[in-house]
Amino acid sequence: MHRPSSPRRFVRLLLALPLVWAAPAAAEPVRDAVAADMPSLMTLYRDFHANPELSFEEVKSAAKIAGELRRLGFTVTTGVGKTGVVGVLKNGDGPVLMIRADMDGLPVPEQTGLPFASKATGTSREGLSTPIMHACGHDTHMTTLIGTARRLVAMKAAWQGTLVMIGQPAEEIGLGSKAMLDDGLYTRFPKPQFVLGFHDSASLPAGIVGVTSGFALANVDSVDIVVKGVGGHGAYPQTTRDPIVLAARIVSALQTLVSREVDPQDAAVVTVGSFQAGAKHNVIPAEARLLLTVRSYSDATRKLLLDGIARIARGEAIAAGLPEDKMPLVKVKDEFTPATYNTEPLAGRLKALWRTRFGADRVTDATASMGGEDFSRFYLADKSVQSMIFWVGGVPKAAWDEAGGDTNRLPSLHSPFWAPEADAVISTATEAMTAGALEILAKK
């Protein structure tokens, strides 16, 4: 998953302020209880961080979450969607609220220098040995899930309804939420009316909450194009059909999809992330391969882009004189992640709640991101569900100040250097999530 951006005006105002997110002096039950629990939560966080697991291999992480939820009185089911965890706590009549945390790490060698840095290794889906790191902050997400569960159990007298807490696998490959839904998440367990999730942010200072209404994250498609040709000697190109030249034409033509076919007020991205061809200076290969990432928000724009990619690849091959049996092969991969949509009135309701709780300086309107998140599927599986994912800034204030708020000068999510100010992320997210749950499940 990728980072959101925040409005420049907000950043300039923030840089001019003192440490505005310091807790007020007045006692506040949720905030004080979270603060008291932070030493224990940080121990959990360091354990999660030091022991990341790859997608669909989150066995130890799932066991830790399951154990914590069982101790709190949840009815816990493991192995949902392969390695997912579902904990259910019924507390009288009322709405069903589901809170989600994703669990998987990334095949990234950690370079943060933290004393509890990951030394874990694993085998990637491609069968390669790889280091593993929580380079996207899912360790903070799991810790917040546990912290929120503790607070809500301790405050059962203040709410009524059903709480469903889930540890979701395989967000990083876009398949975990689908796996849990396919395994009966909405049929074997109480189906939620509300779904909440959060993500740490590498584009906001530590402790700042970012909220987006409507589209929050993009459709993400991976597309492979195999460009065929006729190979031969580099000295006699006239005897060949050069797939490298054809693939280069395709790459250039693809740039017109966004610039000339998508409404300038819409958002779209077509990026060629890999161009693979040939192995020797004087040999024209028989094929070239292009790997693309394609981003959009609406279904209509997604279709326009995918149809356009296929049309351009075929059209350029025809222009190059290739016969029908040499047309490029265009494959849209099955790792599609649909766009994430934050519903109203839930997004506005919680944003207002958090601005009252934290102060307007700590809650900002975050712009939509072209990153992807399979949290989207919980809403798409049943559009009667109100759903929202929000951001909590993780950039340490000293690093933010040194960079002048320029996120291009800071480590991004998925960077081997990403080390969020974890205590600020976890304490803020746990308080925000707990307060949001109490609002949704408030006794009538």
Automatic annotation (TrEMBL):
Residue ranges of every copy of the Peptidase M20 dimerisation domain listed in the record:
219-316
Q: Which GO terms describe its biological process?
A: diaminopimelate biosynthetic process
**Sequence positions that bind Mn(2+):** 136, 138, 172, 199, 414
What detail does the entry give on cofactor binding? The Mn(2+) ion enhances activity.
Q: Where is the signal peptide?
A: 1-27
| InterPro entries (alphabetical) | Amidohydrolase, Bact_exopeptidase_dim_dom, Peptidase_M20, Peptidase_M20_dimer
State what protein this is by name.
Peptidase M20 dimerisation domain-containing protein
